[in-house]
């Protein structure tokens, strides 16, 4: 006699395995993407200055001679302060990235002690070329590369699943994506569903990155040391862009909680994006 009220059999959460698989795939993709961006920067010198430093990078700063032209120009245009004790410092920084061009920065920092005893700091960093002259690459280059990488990540995972039947992370964690969780030989997803699943998985991050690209396109882009230093006065008063990014990131975290965390807490056998295409993640054996 069967119990009609018995809960239906569902596959396990496999939370740690799925998390480990995602991290493994992310690290491998990050390394390959760094090689691709580095090769692009070498082939296109006009992009070299605007490419962001890779995740694997070191930054070394040392005191600099404030009489050098770039530091002298920064301090010459530095906005004055009316109260408090002020101290200025100059540093020359070198950023070495894995397989990416080296970056040199001239940084001037002002530390000011207010009447209430609090310490306030503000700084300006100017990127330098190989000759030590200031360069002002468009911030859209860095943001565009970041957006393209994020769009390519789900596609890379989907292509690996389509042609190999696994991603490196899923292979190591013995995971498989299927339409039938209880079958002895679980069938794979169709190519269309595989691509759809990967983009559904990461759509909150993709949307966040695209919106930040739009915000960056409207931000001021200095083309001289004078304009870069002048932003010290405008950034403090124009808080709209900062507020937009804070609200956007907070909303993205909330969506990610609902999209990634909540389904594991209220387990129904699969994630929300898996439910949309009727897929399951199960152990290979």
Short description:
This protein is α+β, with helices and mostly antiparallel strands and 285 residues long. 51% of the residues lie in helices and 19% in strands.
Chart the SSEs and their pairings.
Elements: H1 15-43, H2 45-48, E1 57-63, H3 69-76, E2 85-97, E3 100-113, E4 119-128, E5 134-135, H4 139-164, H5 168-172, E6 175-178, H6 191-217, H7 225-237, H8 240-265, H9 272-277, E7 280-283
Antiparallel strand pairs: 1-2, 2-3, 3-4, 4-5, 6-7
Helix content: 40-55%
Tell me the major beta sheet.
5 strands, antiparallel
**Helix and strand sequence:** HHEHEEEEHHEHHHHE
* Strand count: 7
Mean pLDDT: 86
The backbone outline, from C-alpha atoms, is elongated
Give the count of helical stretches.
Answer: 9
Rg (C-alpha, Å): 25 Å
| Alpha-beta classification | alpha+beta
> How many structural domains in the coordinates?
2
Explain what the structure shows:
By secondary structure, the chain is an alpha+beta fold. It folds into two domains: 10-50 and 137-285, no CATH class; 56-135. It is built from nine helices and seven strands. It has helices at 15-43, 45-48, 69-76, 139-164, 168-172, 191-217, 225-237, 240-265, 272-277; strands at 57-63, 85-97, 100-113, 119-128, 134-135, 175-178, 280-283. The strands form two sheets. Strands 1-2-3-4-5 form a five-stranded antiparallel sheet. It has a two-stranded antiparallel sheet with strand order 6-7. A hairpin with a 2-residue loop joins strand 2 and strand 3 (100-113). The longest helix is centred in the first third of the chain and has 29 residues, at 15-43. The protein is elongated, with a radius of gyration of 25 Å. It starts with 14 loop residues before the first helix and ends with a strand. The mean pLDDT is 86. It comes from Martelella radicis. The chain crosses the membrane at residues 20-43, 144-166, 241-262. Keywords: Membrane, Transmembrane, Transmembrane helix. This is RDD domain-containing protein.
């Amino acid at each position: 006699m069967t119990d009609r009220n018995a809960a239906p059999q569902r596959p396990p959460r496999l939370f740690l395995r799925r998390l480990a698989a995602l991290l493994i795939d992310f690290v491998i993709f990050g390394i390959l993407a760094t090689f691709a961006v580095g090769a692009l920067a070498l082939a296109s010198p006009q992009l070299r200055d605007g490419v962001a430093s890779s995740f694997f990078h070191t930054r070394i700063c040392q005191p600099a001679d404030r009489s050098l032209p770039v530091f002298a120009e920064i301090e010459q245009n530095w906005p004055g302060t009316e109260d408090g004790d002020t101290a200025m410092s100059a540093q020359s920084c070198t950023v070495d990235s894995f397989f990416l061009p080296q970056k040199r920065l001239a940084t001037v920092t002002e530390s000011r002690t207010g009447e209430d005893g609090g310490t306030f700091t503000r700084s300006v960093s100017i990127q330098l070329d190989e000759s030590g002259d200031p360069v002002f690459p468009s911030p859209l280059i860095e943001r565009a590369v970041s957006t393209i990488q994020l769009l390519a990540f789900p596609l890379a995972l989907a292509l690996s699943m389509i042609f190999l039947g696994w991603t490196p992370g899923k292979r190591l964690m013995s995971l498989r994506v299927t339409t039938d969780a209880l079958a002895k030989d679980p069938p794979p997803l169709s190519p269309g569903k595989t691509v759809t699943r990967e983009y559904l998985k990461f759509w909150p991050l993709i949307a966040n990155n695209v919106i930040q690209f739009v915000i960056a396109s409207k931000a001021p882009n200095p083309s001289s040391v004078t304009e870069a230093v002048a932003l010290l006065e405008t950034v403090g008063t124009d808080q709209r862009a900062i507020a937009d990014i804070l609200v956007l990131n907070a909303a993205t975290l909330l969506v990610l909680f609902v999209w990634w965390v909540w389904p594991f807490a209220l387990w129904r056998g699969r994630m929300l994006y898996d439910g949309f295409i009727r897929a399951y993640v199960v152990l290979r054996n």
